[in-house]
């Protein structure tokens, strides 16, 4: 039974517009499950990897842009640039990327709201990083989105810094769209062979996973 001092007061979860913890968890699980499903389909269904259907490019953006890149995005833009106008490829990739970044924002917000991450919010490094980010957040997002600078740290920073979702998506659109257009234009103009694109894909995939494998080996040696 609530005390008289707390009677009538609302907790954060009771405020209008707030989702219950159970609903938040359900949404989080569904979001992650969607990405896993799309990734499994990509690797298991061989026809998808050679398809020229723009829906393949659209759905490929989800595992390529979700949280930390699981698969490289650039080879697909070069590939589809051979068959469609750079403008079309850029817009399709940008549309799916915006949806993916909205999922990223929601997913990171769920994780950031967990009590286990309270210490992370208060750490000196994170506090200084957020203070630096807040000096020019839109410019920082645009530069990270347009250039090869790793983008995934900014996905977490916007949530901790409470940067509005619409501004985050706008910065993403204005930075990613021209980047996608340039890659598609290169693919349209140069028309790289499928063999070379596969080689580029393999090299970029190795660049993603080799550092993780090295860390695991190093950790096992230290434990052993």
Structural class, judged by helices and strands?
mainly alpha
Give the termini distance in whole angstroms. Answer: 53 Å
Number of helical regions: 11
CA-based shape: globular
Q: How many domains in all? A: 1
Throw out a few tags for this protein.
single chain, 11 helices, 224 residues, mainly alpha, 75% helix
Structure description:
The protein has 224 residues and is an all-alpha fold. It has one domain (17-223). The protein has 11 helices and no strands. The protein has helices at 21-44, 46-50, 54-65, 74-80, 86-112, 118-122, 124-135, 137-146, 152-160, 165-190, 194-223. The longest helix has 30 residues, at 194-223.
Give the helices and strands, then pairings.
Layout: H1 21-44, H2 46-50, H3 54-65, H4 74-80, H5 86-112, H6 118-122, H7 124-135, H8 137-146, H9 152-160, H10 165-190, H11 194-223
Short description:
This protein has 224 residues and is mainly α. It is built from eleven helices and no strands.
